[in-house]
Design brief:
By secondary structure, this protein is of the alpha+beta class. The protein has three domains: 62-144, OB fold (Dihydrolipoamide Acetyltransferase, E2P) (Beta Barrel); 190-390, Multidrug efflux transporter AcrB transmembrane fold; 405-439, no CATH class. 61% of the residues lie in helices and 12% in strands. It has 14 helices and five strands. The protein has a five-stranded antiparallel β-sheet, with no helix packed on it. The model is unreliable at 18-45 and 395-440 (pLDDT under 50).
């Protein structure tokens, strides 16, 4: 049966996290209201300047990204990229625009991005200037249909081989994406604290995903508590690591573009910390659920084990899990940074230490180390919580059904030695349950 107090506490924690997520937006709105008088004063001070310098309305360029189809490849040749020894394919294409305000029009474009064939579909960048000039540029190949094909394959395999649990896992994945796209990202863009939002959203994803996938029970609750404690501890450690290593969060050009597009409203160092925590959720979830289920099975099939012995056996399982997942986590990050590694490996102009000291490399190192530490801590934390919740303290009850005196007479439970009990022919260690004689 579900522990009602723990379930109620967990539900209340979920509601509390959702309520807290609205705090950054409320704070931002309040600050805007408070600064309104100051803004009005500044407008009054600038009135004289506006009278002297006439206001000019700027006309911005307009951009469209539309699908297009290749009608004919008029020419194809290989050219050297200026300043390099690399050949690139250059094509002259007659194309038809398939959507947007210019749908149906046929134009000729130059292409040196990637090679296209007749009837090939791609995305076209159309830029219109105030003087009436229009330019066309090949942007990206159209690949959404292929991506959706692999997504469908993933869903089918999850349902066929995962059954009911696979369907629950897909629902949990959908819930996680909903939280990320409709709560986390909008709050970040509105000026919310990345650190606070990452901790709150990570905890919310853990709660939603765990209960949808594994149901409402004490085993799931123990895993949830263990994961949330680990996320909190790892979050504080990540904050310290980002601070002492002086990471700014500007480790790629995408971050720079984001910084300017949002007028500097987002704390990039905090965003880096959030990325570390959310990236950790996958392996953290795997380790915590695995430990909780292992302890549940041990407590059912070996009920004579004391809490201390149960924790020791669980840690034995957890150590094997740690070894495999650390390797997986590190290789996943290395794989994502492979082009960067190759770039600096091929350029023998700087020393190894100076390369490792670069922000882009240091960021990945900290990401791997903090993620691995969080993964390691998941095992003992979740094991301890699960043992305390799933294993009843003390020795109660008597031998189960089918436990013969002849069998029990010769069985000595090492876990009951601490209490000085010898399993006799009239009673077993009180921790044993029905059916233990079959295991003995």
């Amino acid at each position: 049966m579900i522990n009602k107090k723990l379930f109620t506490l967990t539900v209340c924690a979920s509601i509390f996290l959702l309520a807290l997520l609205s705090v950054p937006s409320m704070t931002l709105a309040t600050s805007v209201q408070q600064t309104a008088p100051e803004a009005s004063a500044q407008q009054l001070e600038q009135a004289t300047t506006e009278d002297i310098v006439p206001k000019v309305d700027l006309v911005l360029d307009t951009h469209q990204l539309v699908k297009a189809r290749v009608i004919e490849v008029q020419s194809r040749e290989s050219k050297l990229i200026p300043g390099t020894n690399i050949d690139a394919v250059h094509q002259t294409l007659e194309i038809e625009i398939l959507e947007g305000t210019m749908k149906g029009q046929k134009v000729v474009v130059e292409n040196d991005r990637f090679e296209l064939k007749e009837d090939g579909v791609f995305y076209l960048q159309i830029t219109s200037y105030p003087d009436g000039q229009v330019t066309y540029a090949v942007a990206e190949p159209y690949r959404i249909d292929k991506v959706l094909m692999f997504v469908l394959l993933f869903i089918v395999l999850a349902v066929v081989f995962g059954g009911k649990q696979g369907v629950r896992g897909l629902l949990a994945l959908g819930g996680s994406f909903f939280v990320l796209f409709y709560i986390f990202l909008p709050e970040l863009l509105s000026g919310g604290s990345p650190v606070f939002l990452s901790l709150a959203v990570s905890s919310l994803i853990i709660i939603i995903g765990s209960y949808i996938t594994h149901g409402l029970n004490k085993t799931t609750t123990s895993a949830v508590i263990g994961m949330i404690l680990t996320i909190l501890f790892t979050g504080f450690m990540a904050m310290y690591a980002v601070s002492v290593t002086k990471l700014t969060g500007f480790f790629s050009e995408d971050v720079v573009y984001l910084h300017f597009n949002t007028d500097g409203k987002i704390d990039m160092a905090g965003l880096l910390l959030g990325g570390i925590l959310i990236g950790l959720l996958g392996v953290l979830y795997d380790a915590a659920i695995g430990q909780a289920v292992a302890i549940e099975e041990l407590s059912v099939h070996a009920p004579h084990l004391s809490r201390r012995k149960l924790f020791e056996r669980a840690m034995r399982i957890g150590r094997e899990h740690i070894g495999a997942l650390i390797d997986s986590l590190a290789l996943a990050y290395v794989g994502a940074s492979l082009p960067l590694l190759l770039l600096f490996y091929s350029a023998n102009t700087t020393s190894l230490m100076s390369v490792l000291n670069r922000e882009d490399f240091s960021t990945e190192i900290i990401r791997i180390i903090i993620g691995s530490i969080g993964l390691i801590l998941t095992v003992p934390i979740t094991s301890f919580v699960s043992v305390m919740m799933l294993k009843k303290k003390g020795c109660e009850g008597k031998g189960g059904n089918g436990t013969s005196g002849a069998t029990a007479k010769h069985v000595h439970s090492e876990d009951c030695e601490e209490e000085g009990e010898l399993v006799g022919h009239s009673r077993l260690c009180g921790c044993m349950r029905r059916g233990l004689s079959e295991d003995l």
